[in-house]
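TICKET #2291
ISSUE: user wants both folds in one file
ATTACHMENT 1:
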Amino acid sequence: MCDYSLQYVASRPAKVGDKLVTTQFANSITRGFAAVGEPNVAVCLLPGTEVAFDKEVEREHALGFFPMRMRGKKLGEKVARFRQVKKEQPHVHHDALEFPDGQIVLLTRLCQGQQATVLQLPVAPRTPEEAEEQKRVAVV
C-alpha cells in the first residue's frame, strides 16, 4: 500500500526480490520506498510484506530539527514487516514498519537513502477481514 500523501506519485506493487531505497518523493510530503533505479516511482507494499535492510535501520530524531549528524537513531534491527496504522484517520501517515522487538516506525520517519530487499509478500487473504487489510487506503 502507499500512504495517502503519495496519491500524486507514480506507483507500482512490490515484488519479491525488489531492491528498495527510502526516498523523499517530489510532489509529496512523505517518504516511502522506491526501487533502486526508479527514484520517482513509489513501491507499494501490502501489510505483512517482509523486508531486510542492508544495514541497521535508522530513523530521524523524534523532534526532527537536529543537525543531520545528530538526526539518525539506529534501531538495532535489520528486518521488518510492513503494516498500516491509524487507518481510521484519513489524513495522517499510515505506512509503517514493525520490527521484531515490537517497535513500530512510520516510513516517513526513516532516514533517506537506506536500502532494503523485499523478502516475502503476504499470503493471499483467506477471510474477508484479511482481504480488507490488503486493500489500498481509500483517498478521501
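ATTACHMENT 2:
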Amino acid sequence: MLATKLQHQERNIIHRTKGHSGGPITRLMSPSDLGELVKPFVFLDLAVFDGDHRRSMETMWHPHSGIATITVMLEGGVQIAETTGKRGVLPKGSIEFMQAGNGVWHTGQAEPGHVKAFQLWIALPPELENGPIASHYVLPDDVPATGPARVILGEYDGVKSPIPTPPMTYLVVNLEDGERWTYQPPEGHDVGWLAVSDGRVRSSSTIPAGELAIFEPSQAPIHVVAEGATRFVIGSAPQHPHDLVLGNYSVHTTQRALDQGEAEIRRIGRELQANGTLQR
C-alpha cells in the first residue's frame, strides 16, 4: 500500500506565471527573477509571430557570454546568423544551440507566416562560461524522440540528444486529449519546470497555454494529464550551485568572469561596427 501511494504522489507546483508580454514575445522567466529558482535554466521566451512585429536581421544583433541559448522551433521558421560564421534558416521542428562561452553576437528574424518558438538560456558552469563558443543546428529528422517526447538536451528513456551539455534534460512533449504522461527525472535532478505552448496540462494544478510552472525541489516524478491536444517543454537538472552574476545579455558565476566576457563582447562589437554589420 505504501509503495502504491508513493508511486502516485503529486509533486507540487510552487510557482506559476504568465510572464510579461511585449508584442509577439512573452518573457516567462529571467535570470533576475525565476531563474534563481530553477538555475541552470535562467531565461525562457515564448515567441509567436503572425505577420507583424518583424524587424530586420540587421537591427537585431545582440551579444551573450556565460550562457548557452537553445531555440526550439514549434511552428514556422526563423533566419539566424552568428559571429561564429554560421547562418541559415531553422525550419519547424529544428533546434539551434549556441554556446556563447567567452562572447558571441547573433541575430534572427521570423520567416513570413505563423511562427512559434521557445528560446531558453542555460547558465554555464565555470569551466565553460569563458570557454570556446560552439554551435549545433539539429534539423527536424535528426531530433531524437521516444514516445511523445522529443529530446532537445540530455537523455531520456535511453534516448540521447546529439548536443553535448552539462547534466540536464530538456524535452518537447506532445499529448492528445486525456493522455497521461509521467516524467521521471534522472538521478540528482532536483530542479523541475514546464511551460505550455498549446492546450493545457493538469498536474497538481492546471497549467494553460502561455504559462510556466515550477515544481518543488525534488527528484520525484512529475505526472501530467492533457486537456485537449497539448504541447509543452519540460526541463530538469541538478541545481546550479553558483551565483548568477548578471550583465545586460550575460550570466556568469563571478564578477571577474563577467568582466572577461563583456570585454570580449565589446571587442567583437567594435569589429561589427567597423565592418558595417551593426546598423543602429
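RESOLUTION: both attachments delivered.
EXTRA DETAIL ON ATTACHMENT 2: The longest strand covers residues 222-237.
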